[in-house]
Amino acid sequence: MGYPQSHEPAAPTPIKIVVAGGFGVGKTTTVGVISDTPPLTTEAAMTDVAAHVDRTGDVPDKTTTTVAIDFGTIRLDQGLKLYLFGTPGQDRFGFMWHDICVGALGALVIVDTRRLDDCYPAVDYFEQARIPFVIAVNLFHGRLAHSLEEVRWALAVNGDTPLTTFDARSRQSVRDALLTVCRHALQRATAAA
Amino acid sequence: MTEADGAGRRLPPYMRHADASRPLPDDPGAQAYLDADDAPRLRPYQMTGGRTAPVDPTLALEAQVVADGAVIAAPHALRFEHREVVNLAHDPVSVAELGALLHLHLQVVRVLVADLAAAGHLRVLRPQRAAATDPAMIERVIRGLSAIA
Ligand SMILES: Nc1nc2c(ncn2[C@@H]2O[C@H](COP(=O)(O)OP(=O)(O)O)[C@@H](O)[C@H]2O)c(=O)[nH]1
Ligand SMILES: [Mg+2]
Description:
The complex is a heterodimer. Chain A is α/β, with parallel strands linked by helices. Chain A is built from 6 helices and 7 strands, in the order E-H-E-H-E-E-H-E-H-E-H-E-H. In chain A, strand 3 (66-77) and strand 4 (80-88) form a beta hairpin. Chain B contains 7 helices and 3 strands; from the N terminus they run ααβααβααβα. A 3-stranded antiparallel beta sheet of chain B has the order 2-1-3. The chains are: A alpha/beta, B mainly alpha. Magnesium ion (MG) binds at residues 27-28, 70 of chain A. Chain A: It comes from Virgisporangium aliadipatigenens.
């Protein structure tokens, strides 16, 4: 046909960090404030849609729940792109949870101290999946309702899980929280090597 | 010829074709249907019904796909929804981005990607799992993040 065979642009190496926590804790804000591009939302279904489509005419039942996943990207260097995925971590989304998190460098679990138990499912998941995670208390009102040690006790996370406070609306603060995730992951990776 | 979905709505012909490599005639009617403001959102099973290429249900959200040069030059040979994917994949693009930009469920994107890859129109670059636990790679991420002002 004589079409010029355009040379294929190199794809960046993708690295992923998951941002988890209950509804309203600041996940969307966090992803949006640090992303290079306006944050986007993609949808995942709780049920496996692909399993349905192979059976012609089979209509997924109406209770199929769609979960919105926020995502943003940060170009870290020429060949490296960080993907941030923000998702409500809830027990009943187990299937999708794994789908999003597999292969993640680490996770930021955002906590609102007024509703601590909202983050239990996320903490449980990352512990079981052995994904390095950091608890980040979003300082909605500029101060803590409980001390960080009280938070650690209430969440029953072990001593080497980092706990930090941050402000989801501040780019520098989100950057620092993500750096805490990376340093924790690095410590794990170095210990395992 | 007329087929209808469960709600009695007619299905345009492009929804009934399964083979990604088989071109559909450019159907202005179908295009108008999709462009119409009141067009209902296509449900996943309508867009992907009767397909045969194996889908990788674990294809990562951050996996990159990139369209083949030949198909970029001649996208009109493709079904509408495949064409949309190709149009976004001239440069490498993530599965998550495709889902967001096309307003499609992640699982539907995986199906479309599988179709196009099977037909040789798209290359799929799976992320290397080991990268996330490689100290040198994590240090590189730290350097990149630290540079953010
Ligand atoms: N005052 C204050 N408001 C915040 C902060 N983080 C998020 N918000 C607000 O809290 C609401 C919920 O945040 P959002 O990011 O949508 O939470 P999500 O449900 O976890 O995605 C929004 O109205 C945000 O503007 C914060 O650090 N301080
Ligand atoms: Mg949100």
